[in-house]
Design a protein that fits this description.
Layout (H helix, E strand, L loop, with lengths): L5 E5 L8 H12 L3 E4 L6 H11 L3 E5 L5 H14 L6 E5 L6 H9 L4 E3 L5 H11 L14 H19 L25 E6 L6 H15 L5 E7 L7 E3 L1 H4 L8 E7 L11 H9 L5 E5 L17 E6 L6 H4 L4 H4 L2 E4 L7 H13 L6 E4 L8 H11 L2
Parallel strand pairs: 1-2, 1-3, 2-8, 3-4, 4-5, 6-10, 6-11, 7-9, 7-10, 11-12, 12-13
Bound molecules: cobalamin, guanosine-5'-triphosphate (GTP) and magnesium ion.
The site of magnesium ion has 4 residues, from helix 7.
Length: about 375
């Protein structure tokens, strides 16, 4: 089976018109396309960095507030400058982009503009026809390391999709069956974040990244973030839209769809993780999809430390007995501690975890608040030697 087409979509800086792109994203996903959605009000620079790291075949821009000629062309220019001239740029903006504008844009490297009245089916067909083929080269000579790494991650991911093999990865030195324990030499520390959908995993990781970048001026961080594939279709890879601090040259972020695998990760996660751990990052952070009670996503020492992020509102105390990760996680974070139930949650979870006798830590955080002391503490715990 051919690997899904991956595209990145976004709305330019100073533009909040995201309704069109949301509709288009959903249509793409329904037709097997994986969409990395960056959100609205985005700089050209962030779009280009994301497109390269995510190794998408094309960037789709939806623009309504004017400045589209300059903006689209700037994205094309920056892609070329960074050696990624095979990532196409397309998009639309209803009646705000004229046919004259389109001619200028196409002359300057934009692939295609869609005008008002085009059906969603025509746009889906265009993406399948035009961007159906994988990139031919792994980056021009002298292409940045980010791009070469991104393309190798695609090879790994698509190897699983195309061959449906268990372990197809070429050129990746696999760890022993002990996982991370066989790979300690690299000095990279790997943290795994899991927990129910919407508990605040991405927001928390983004705040953690902010602290790591500030505390350690030379640190480089990789993030491997998972979102679910729609059954038999594509996926909306939306974690990047929540990541603000992680839009940084020292952060390499890759979004992965689960592509039919249950349990929170993708079939290719372990191999991708191995590659990242060999690529000179100080930290690699994995975010699973929103998981359920029975999930145990980080088995056989895949990561150095596991963090379970909980909502304060998990039902009654009885529910806590059923969450397997409460026995396995090194750190349990009760996020959204600004909510009323947080105190009760802290005490119930504290007692539940005490029974394990493993010295697991329980922390309260408010990830969406800047300079939250709970997140500082989490950062301390994760980085302590
Ligand atoms: C809906 C809308 C809003 C909503 C936005 C809701 C949202 N969350 O998106 C609200 C009411 C909030 C809004 C606000 C504003 N809006 Co407004 N808005 C519109 C409106 C009516 C429709 C745009 C739309 O979503 N169309 C639906 C899409 C699906 O269809 P389409 O536009 O025809 O696009 C086709 C193709 O181009 C293609 N396409 C579009 N994008 C992409 C991307 C990709 C990748 C692909 C493949 C294809 C594609 O898909 C469609 C296929 O048929 C337009 C007017 C209009 N009729 O176009 C004004 C319009 C865009 N808005 C306008 C303005 C001025 C504003 C405000 C500044 C108003 C104000 N003074 O406050 C604010 C700014 C908001 C902001 N933060 O940026 C102006 C822009 C003028 C300009 N650029 O010269 C317009 C043109 C209205 C006008 N005639 O004055 N707006
Ligand atoms: N009240 C409150 N809201 C928060 C807090 N942290 C995150 N949120 C909000 O919770 C919502 C979900 O946050 P995400 O970080 O996307 O959650 P997630 O666990 O990564 O979600 P999935 O990846 O979809 O499973 C967002 O609207 C955040 O702004 C917090 O501490 N308090
Ligand atoms: Mg998330």
């Amino acid at each position: 089976m051919a690997a899904p087409i991956r595209v990145l979509t976004a709305v330019p800086i100073c533009d909040g018109h995201d309704s069109a792109i949301n509709t288009i994203n959903l249509e793409f996903i329904r037709h097997g396309i994986e969409v990395v959605y960056l959100g609205y009000h985005r700089y050209a620079e962030d779009i280009v960095r994301a497109a390269i790291q995510e190794d998408v075949r094309a960037v789709g821009i939806s623009s309504y507030n004017g400045g589209h000629v300059e903006f689209f062309v700037e994205v094309v220019k920056q892609l070329r400058k960074r050696g990624a001239d095979d990532i196409a740029v397309f998009g639309g903006g209803g009646g705000t982009i004229t046919h004259d504008d389109q001619r200028v844009m196409q002359k300057r490297g934009v692939d295609k503009i869609f005008f008002a009245g085009t059906s969603l089916t025509d746009m889906v067909d265009f993406v399948h026809e035009r961007y159906g083929k994988a990139h031919k080269h792994s980056g021009r000579r002298g292409a940045p390391a980010d791009m070469q790494l991104a393309r190798r991650l695609t090879e790994i991911e698509d190897g699983y999709a195309e061959k449906k093999k268990k372990r197809p990865t070429p050129n990746v030195q696999r760890s022993t069956s002990k996982g991370r324990k066989g790979n300690k030499k690299s000095g990279t520390r790997v943290f795994g974040f899991t927990g129910p959908g919407g508990a605040g995993k991405t927001t928390l990781i983004d705040e953690l990244v902010l602290r790591l970048l500030k505390r350690e001026p030379k640190t480089r961080i990789a993030i491997l973030s998972h979102d679910p594939s729609v059954v038999g279709a594509g996926a909306l890879l939306g974690d990047r839209a929540t990541m603000i601090n992680s839009q940084d040259e020292r952060v390499f972020m890759r979004s992965m769809a689960t592509r039919g695998q249950a349990g929170g990760l993708s079939p290719a996660t372990e191999d991708c993780l191995q590659l990242l751990a060999q690529s000179g990052f100080n930290y690699v952070i994995i975010e699973t999809v929103g998981t359920g009670q029975e999930a145990m996503p980080f088995q056989s020492g895949l990561v150095d430390k596991t963090v379970l992020v909980m909502n304060p509102d998990y039902g009654a105390r009885l529910q806590l007995q059923k969450i397997v990760m409460l026995d396995l996680a090194d750190i349990i974070v009760v996020n959204k501690s600004d909510q009323d139930r947080a105190r009760t949650a802290m005490s119930e979870i504290g007692r539940r975890v005490e029974q394990n006798g493993r010295g697991q830590r329980v922390l309260a955080t408010v990830a969406k608040r800047h300079r939250d002391a709970g997140v500082d503490k989490l950062c301390d715990l994760l980085t302590e030697k």
